[in-house]
Structures are given as C-alpha cells and as structure tokens.
Amino acid sequence: MAVLSDPISDFLTRFKNASRAGNDEFKAPFSKTKAEIARILKEEGYIWGYEVDTTGKFPELKVKAKYMDGRSALTDLKRMSKPGRRRYVGAEEIPRVLNGLGISIISTSKGLMTGHQAKRQKLGGELLANIW
Fold first, then answer.
1. Over 73-98, what HEC string results?
2. What is the phi/psi pair of residue 65, to 5°?
3. What is the pLDDT of residues 57-98, one digit of tens each?
4. pTM, to two decimals
5. Fewer CB within a 10 Å sphere, N or C end of the chain?
6. If you write DSSP's letter for every residue of the chain in order, what string do you get?
7. Structural contact between residues 127 and 80, judged by C-beta atoms closer than 8 angstroms
8. Is the CB of residue 33 less than 8 Å from the CB of residue 8?
9. Domain locations in the chain?
10. Cβ distance 66 to 45 under 8 Å?
C-alpha cells in the first residue's frame, strides 16, 4: 500500500466510493482517529457498524455501510481541513450542513465530535469534514 499524506481523506474517500459502488463493507488501515470518525458515523446513522480486524500484519478497520431501500445513507461528503491548509472554527462559526440535515466532524480539545455537540459544549476546533 502506498504512503498517504492524508489518511483521513483516504478513509472518507473509501467510504464514499464504497457507498456509490453499492458495496456492503470496506476496509481501511486502522488508526484511532479513523475509529473515532467511524464511531461518529455509526451514532449519526451513516453506517451499520465497524470493527477492528487484527488478524493480518497490520490492523484494519472494517466498516459496514448502511443502505435503506437500496440507497446509501450517505449522499455525499466533503473534506474541509487538509494537511496543506487546516481549517479551524470557533464554537460560533461551526457551519450547519445542508440546513441541519448533515453533520460536520470537529476535532476539539475534548476529542472528535459532531458540530452540534461542539456547539452545545461551546468548543471550537479543526473542521475535518462535512457529511450529508
């Protein structure tokens, strides 16, 4: 596997490609950040579940995508903060995604959380992605 400069973007792209291709599950190299993103996606109803597969040489994250009536729960997503250009937002500046129908994922001092949770706790941080 190639060396990646943006593993979070790779994970999100794998999720989007699997959803568009109609694949039930996909695998990505494991990291704690990706596992936290998968936890948020599960809580918000974009995936059925995830698990860490440690049978191989390196641990992998197996994610089961969610489909309802043959359509993916994920419509689209956009990576907001990139390694070359980080995007930080204050608690008041957290964007509403699709007028409240989507979520934003924020990396705060208290861990990864949705934009709604960060706003409620009055926390800002790095805006990782918008998902709808």
1. CCCCEEECCECCECCEECHHHCCCHH
2. -70, 155
3. 999 999 999 999 999 999 999 999 999 999 999 999 999 999
4. 0.93
5. N
6. ----S-HHHHHHHHHHHHHHHT-SEEEEE--HHHHHHHHHHHHTTSEEEEEEE-SSSS-EEEEEE-EETTEES---EEE-SBTTB--EE-GGGPPPGGGGTSEEEEEETTEEEEHHHHHHTT--EEEEEEE-
7. yes
8. yes
9. 7-72, 77-131
10. yes
CA dist., res. 124 & res. 119, Å (int): 8
Asked if residue 38 lies in contact with residue 18, where contact means CB atoms within 8 angstroms, the answer is: no
Nearest to 127 by CA among 107, 112, 113, 110: 107
Class of domain 77-131: alpha beta
**How many of the other CB atoms lie within 10 Å of CB of 67?**
15
The tokens for 47 are: 């995936």
Q: How many CB atoms lie within 10 A of CB 107?
A: 20
Q: What is the CATH number of domain 7-72?
A: 3.30.1370.30
